[in-house]
C-alpha cells in the first residue's frame, strides 16, 4: 500500500490539500476565499513537483492506476489550467458576491478526478475519476445559485451528464460481460481476436459516453447553454482542464484497451471529428454571445484534435497531446479577455457587439484578443497553426486524405468568425467605455498566455513536441 501511495503522490497531495482547504474554509468562512485560492495554487505546484521521479511506467492499487510520462504530461496541463482558473476567478466572484470558500475546493476535487482519469488503467478507476470530476462540475455550473441562468446550466449539465454516465457504465458492463475483465492490460491482447457483437456494442457505448465529456458531436448539445449560463471563470475551466483530461482518457482507452479494434473504432472517431469540425465552424457564425461563440470554437477544436486519434498512430497521439497543450493556452487566454470586459456600471459584457472599437479604448486587451483569435484560426506564424498542421500531417501519413481535406476546409470556414471578432475590435466604432483591468494577476496571466500563443511561443514548439512524443511512446508501449 505504501508503494502505491508513493506512485499516486499527485492524487494524494490533491486529496489531502482539498480536505485541508475545506476545513480551513469551514472555520474561517467567506473571508478565507482569497487565501484558500492562493493556497490551492501552492498545492497544485506541490502536486506537479511530485510528478518528478522515475520516468518508467509504474502500476499501483492492483493494476487500477498507472503512472507514466503520458499521464504526467496531461497532469501538468490539468494542474496549470486549474491553478489559472482558480486565481483569475477571484475578482469576478468577489464582484458577483459569490466569493465562497468552496470554489477553490471544488476546483481541486475536480482536478483530483481528472488526475485519476488520465492515470486509469482499469474501467473501474476510469469511472470513479470521471464521476468525481463530473460531480464537481455540476456544482460549479450552478455556482451562482441565485441566478436563473446558472441554475439552469447546472441542471442541464447534470441531467445530460447523468445520461452520459449511464451510457458509459452500460458499455463498461457489456465489455466486462463479454471479456470477463475491466483491466486495460488484460483487455489489450483479447482484442486481437475476432470481436463479438456484444463487445462492439460495449465499445460504441463507451465511446459515446466519453464523447459527451469532450463535447464531440453528436453529444455536444449541452456545451453552448452551459458555457453561457455558468459563471465565466467556470466556463473557462470547463473549456480547458476537463477537455484535456477527457481527451487524454479517450486516447488511452482507444489505443490501450481497444488498440486491436482500431478498424472498428476509428470510423466512430472519424465521424465525430468531421461532425464536430463542421458544426463547430458553422454553428459559431450566427452567435451574438461571446461565450457561446467560444463554446462552438471548443467543439470545433475538439474535432481537429480527434483527427490525430483517428489516425491511430504514434504520430497521431503525439499530435493530440501537442494540440491540447496549445489549445489550453488559447482557450484560457480567450476567456480571460471575456473576464476583462466590463461596462461603466461594472457589469460583464457578453455581447460580441460590445467588442466594437476595443483597440481604441483598451489597445492592450485588443492586441491579446487578436493574438488568440488568429491563433485559434490557425494562422501562421502564431502558435495555433502548428498543432493543426501536426494533426493534418498525422492524417495524411495514415492515408486519411479525405479527413485532412475536410479539416483544412472547416478551418478556413471557422476563420471567418475569428476574423469577425478582430474586425469588430479594430475597425468598428466604440459603442461604450470598457473599464480597465481590475486585477494585476489576471493581467499577468493574460499577458503570459498571449506571449505563449504569439510568434515568441515558437521557441517552445521543440520542448513541447518532444515531451508529447515521449508521452505518446510511453503510453503505446503499455
What's the tally of helices?
22
Percent helix: over 70%
Radius of gyration: 21 Å
Order of secondary-structure elements:
HHHEEHHHHHHHHHHHHHHHHHHH
Computed structural class: mainly alpha
- Which regions are unreliable across 5 or more consecutive residues at pLDDT < 50? none
Largest sheet: 2 strands, antiparallel
Distance between the termini: 22 Å
Question: What is the total domain count?
Answer: 1
Give the overall shape. Answer: globular
The largest beta-sheet arranges its strands as 1-2
Average pLDDT level: 87
Task: Give the DSSP E fraction (strand runs of 2 or more residues).
Answer: under 5%
β-strand number: 2
Describe the structure.
It is an enzyme of class 7 (translocase). This is NADH-quinone oxidoreductase subunit N. This protein has about 475 residues and is mostly helical. It has one domain. Helices cover about 75% and strands about 0% of the residues. The chain contains 22 helices and two strands. It has a two-stranded antiparallel sheet. A hairpin with a 4-residue loop joins strand 1 and strand 2. The chain is globular and about 65 Å long.
Amino acid at each position: 500500500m505504501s508503494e502505491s501511495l508513493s506512485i499516486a503522490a499527485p492524487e494524494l497531495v490533491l486529496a489531502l490539500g482539498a480536505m485541508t482547504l475545506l476545513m480551513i474554509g469551514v472555520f474561517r468562512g467567506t473571508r478565507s476565499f482569497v487565501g484558500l485560492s492562493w493556497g490551492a495554487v501552492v498545492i497544485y505546484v506541490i502536486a506537479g513537483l511530485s510528478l518528478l521521479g522515475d520516468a518508467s511506467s509504474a502500476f499501483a492499487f492492483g493494476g487500477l492506476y498507472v503512472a507514466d510520462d503520458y499521464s504526467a504530461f496531461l497532469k501538468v496541463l490539468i494542474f496549470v489550467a486549474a491553478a489559472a482558473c482558480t486565481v483569475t476567478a477571484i475578482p469576478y466572484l468577489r464582484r458577483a458576491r459569490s466569493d465562497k470558500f468552496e470554489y477553490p475546493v471544488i476546483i481541486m476535487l475536480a482536478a483530483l478526478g481528472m488526475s485519476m482519469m488520465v492515470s486509469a488503467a482499469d474501467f473501474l478507476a476510469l469511472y470513479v475519476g470521471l464521476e468525481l470530476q463530473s460531480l464537481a462540475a455540476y456544482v460549479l455550473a450552478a455556482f451562482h445559485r441565485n441566478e436563473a441562468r446558472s441554475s439552469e446550466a447546472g441542471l442541464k449539465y447534470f441531467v445530460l451528464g447523468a445520461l452520459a454516465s449511464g451510457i458509459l457504465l452500460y458499455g463498461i458492463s457489456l465489455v466486462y460481460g463479454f471479456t470477463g475483465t475491466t483491466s486495460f492490460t488484460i483487455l489489450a491482447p483479447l482484442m486481437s481476436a475476432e470481436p463479438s457483437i456484444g463487445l462492439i456494442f460495449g465499445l460504441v457505448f463507451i465511446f459515446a459516453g466519453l464523447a459527451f465529456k469532450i463535447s464531440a458531436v453528436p453529444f455536444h448539445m449541452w456545451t453552448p447553454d452551459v458555457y453561457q449560463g455558468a459563471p465565466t471563470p467556470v466556463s473557462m475551466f470547463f473549456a480547458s482542464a476537463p477537455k484535456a483530461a477527457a481527451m487524454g482518457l479517450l486516447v488511452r482507452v482507444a489505443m490501450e484497451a481497444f488498440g486491436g479494434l482500431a478498424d472498428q473504432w476509428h470510423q466512430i472517431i472519424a465521424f465525430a471529428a468531421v461532425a464536430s469540425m463542421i458544426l463547430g465552424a458553422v454553428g459559431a457564425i450566427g452567435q451574438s454571445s461571446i461565450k457561446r461563440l467560444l463554446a462552438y470554437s471548443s467543439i470545433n477544436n475538439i474535432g481537429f484534435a480527434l483527427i490525430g486519434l483517428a489516425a491511430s498512430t504514434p504520430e497521431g497521439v503525439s499530435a493530440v497531446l501537442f494540440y491540447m497543450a496549445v489549445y489550453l493556452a488559447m482557450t484560457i487566454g480567450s476567456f480571460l479577455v471575456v473576464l476583462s470586459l466590463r461596462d461603466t456600471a461594472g457589469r460583464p459584457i457578453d455581447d460580441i457587439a460590445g467588442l466594437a472599437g476595443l483597440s481604441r479604448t483598451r489597445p492592450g486587451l485588443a492586441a491579446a484578443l487578436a493574438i488568440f483569435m488568429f491563433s485559434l484560426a490557425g494562422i501562421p506564424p502564431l502558435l495555433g497553426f502548428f498543432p493543426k498542421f501536426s494533426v493534418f500531417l498525422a492524417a495524411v501519413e495514415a492515408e486519411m486524405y479525405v479527413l485532412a481535406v475536410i479539416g483544412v476546409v472547416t478551418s478556413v470556414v471557422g476563420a471567418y468568425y475569428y476574423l469577425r471578432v478582430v474586425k469588430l475590435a479594430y475597425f468598428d466604432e466604440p459603442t461604450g467605455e470598457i473599464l480597465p483591468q481590475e486585477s494585476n494577476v489576471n493581467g499577468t496571466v493574460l499577458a503570459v498566455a498571449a506571449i505563449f500563443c504569439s510568434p515568441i511561443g515558437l521557441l517552445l514548439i521543440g520542448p513541447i513536441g518532444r515531451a508529447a512524443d515521449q508521452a505518446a511512446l510511453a503510453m503505446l508501449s503499455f
